[in-house]
Amino acid sequence: MSGAEIFDITIDKVRFSYDGAPMHFDATIAANAITALIGPSGSGKSTLLNLIAGFETPSQGRILFAGRDHTAVAPAERPVSMVFQENNLFAHLDVAANVGLGRSPSLKLDEADRDDISTALERVGLAGKDKRLPRELSGGERQRVALARVLVRNRPVLLLDEAFASLGPSLRRDMLDLVGELQRSRAMTVLMVTHDPADALRIAAHTIFLENGCVVASGDTATMLSGKAPAQVQRYLGGKVRDAGDTIARKET
Amino acid sequence: MAVRDEPLTRPRGAVHEWRGLAGLAFIGLLIGGALLGLVAEGARDPSGARDAFDPYLARVVRFTLLQAILSTLASVLPAIVVARALSRHGAFRGRGLLLRLFSVPLALPQIVAALGVLALFGRAGLLADLASASGLGHWPSIYGLSGILIAHAFFNVPLAARLLLQALDTIPADHWRLASQLGMAPWSTFGLIEWPAMRAALPGIAGLVFMLCVTSFTIVLTLGGGPAATTLEVAIYQALRFDFDPARALVLTALQLGLTIAIVWLLARLGADLAGETSIAVSRRRYAAIGGVETLFNAAVLMLALAFVGGPIAAIVAGGLEADLGRLIGEHAVRAALATSLVLAFVAAILCCLLTFGLVSGRKRLEARRRSSPAGLAERLMDSGTALVLVVPPIIIGAGWFLLLRLFADAFAFAPVMVVCVNAVMAIPFVVRAIRPAHDSAFDRHDRLCRQLGITGMARLRLVDWPVMRRPLATGFAFAMALSIGDLGVIALFGSEQVQTLPYLLLARMSSYRTADAAGIALILAVFCFLLIMLAERLGGEKR
């Protein structure tokens, strides 16, 4: 994958049905930026990520990366890495192996690969922990291993499915900042699902709001999470808007 | 809903379903071949088959059902009392040990248990000796219905008691608290709380025991003692091995097949669990104060149960140790039979694990792919179809193949293949228990990750499946090998001087009244089974 390409994602009139709930997505995710995906639970946030990653197949419509149709491409062949909320690591493999799988799915690694793995682990702050097993790591460290694998895998698109939802507030802010840094250094297109508007305000330039399996509103994050947001978004955010406003204020000082 | 039939993004799924389909094909071939044998025999000699319907046949059917009904009663009624006693006293010393003892008969090869029952209750047994020593006079022979009932009760009282105890353990603690607050007498507690819980489970448990007794082969063969006490399964064996009357064998097999299908259909409606798994429940705090009289009664019940289940086991050990074990082990026939048993059981267990892994992973993949739409035929077959092999008892498969093979070749030459294949398939439902939970939860954790990273084929087996499944597979393997090593089913039909397993040799020694030899071989066989079951439990128990 050449780094020069602009990896925007187009979700072109995608239809999908899960447990009888019809969903209809139509959106464009900006290249080289972080976009937050918010909405009530059951609104289809994770489903949309699964469609983009290729774990689900649309019944109609297309998924395009950089203008090319990837609707029928297997997950591993897409220009995408995804980090889940949990189960990102194989519990029986050590940290280095878990990261190495991002380079070779049969774990056939040469010297250069091993160097890359060490560099990536260093980059996410896990230097020297390459022989640990996942159960010997904290929840935050485990997600850092997953991010190291994203670096080693080097795909232009990163999907985060509430990847940091189970972490405490300060740890979560650290992880978000790390994602922000990685995004800038690799010029990645990042789409992250989150429950907390503060996450979006912290690193996402754009925000998309989903409701009942449809994209209801989208725009730049500051507008979407302010008093100027569309009515449905305001209703969903409820009391959170003011808190979010406070966060903006703090961020701007 | 416009869903595409074949999602293009998942071409790899098909490979894994092939494993499951291969497993199904193997089972289908085994059962189909047996049925083909029956049909071929029927077509070859239709008048012989018609002639086989005679008064003898009616008597056999009648006895088959009679002994099964009586055995069920003799197993389930005592089990109710035993289970209640165990449930009322949740924390006495040795309770765990007693429950463990109750799991022993299921691990014991049937022929070994039959020998234990003879050694304790038989005319030359320990109780007869005691009776004559104390001048109680003539001890009756237990060959026939009484011996069959005792042996079936030995197996099924503990099984039914454990299943009933499980039912009792589902009673919410609040009910007990309420009962003690209202001051319920033991009798009302039984009527209002315990009996309703047991009654719900009873049809399924009784059905399971009935099914086990209707298809019982080894017990009836060794303890029946003559044509007056013969069941369909034993009559099939006799028709093929002694009278060489294929037409009669055909009719008997068809009848037995019809009978088991009818019973299984009935059981499915009752909601019985055919593989009959029980877990040992942890003792629970009860809030009822139990009176002295009831405690004495319950203690007597449990002592009796202990003696009834422990007695034959002790008799096996005692009889085996009395035998000249050194000479036996030095004997060529014994060593050859042991080696044959080990090799055949080993191969059967490997085959069983391969088939089961294929079926389990095929089923899970189909389930994961279909999402919320209803399960297809292949998935349903890989799921419950594995238990369907219990519908077709080994003797029926063996008989069908025997009839088929003899049309082309010397059927006895196929003994090793038949023993391996049938034993492997018979063990599938039990191995499914051992590996499916681990497999399915690992699949849920790993599948998206594997698909995302492109870990497929051999790499997935080596890096993901094998490390996770190694232990459960070893458990399943040990179980399958234990089941296979003690089995006297197909080998009874196909065994010969050339191919003898340990149970077959044991049967031969029993038939020629070499009782001491038989006792020694029984102990050797029991020890091997036990080691394997213990290994299975150790492997399965840790790391959970």
Structure overview:
The complex is a heterodimer of chains A (253) and B (544). Chain A is an alpha/beta fold and 253 residues long. Chain A has two domains: 178 residues, P-loop containing nucleotide triphosphate hydrolases (Rossmann fold), CATH 3.40.50; 67 residues. In chain A, 36% of the residues lie in helices and 23% in strands. Chain A is built from nine helices and ten strands. In chain A, the strands form two sheets. Chain A has a six-stranded mixed β-sheet with strand order 6-7-8-3-9-10, with helices on both faces. A four-stranded antiparallel β-sheet of chain A has the order 2-1-4-5. In chain A, a hairpin with a 2-residue loop joins strand 1 and strand 2. The longest helix of chain A has 18 residues. Chain A is globular and about 50 Å long. Chain B is mainly α and 544 residues long. Chain B has a single domain, classed as Orthogonal Bundle (MetI-like fold), CATH 1.10.3720. Chain B is 77% helix and 0% strand. The two termini of chain B are 42 Å apart. In chain B, 47% of the residues are buried. The N terminus of chain B is likely disordered. At the A-B interface, strand 1 and strand 6 of A face helix 20 and helix 21 of B.
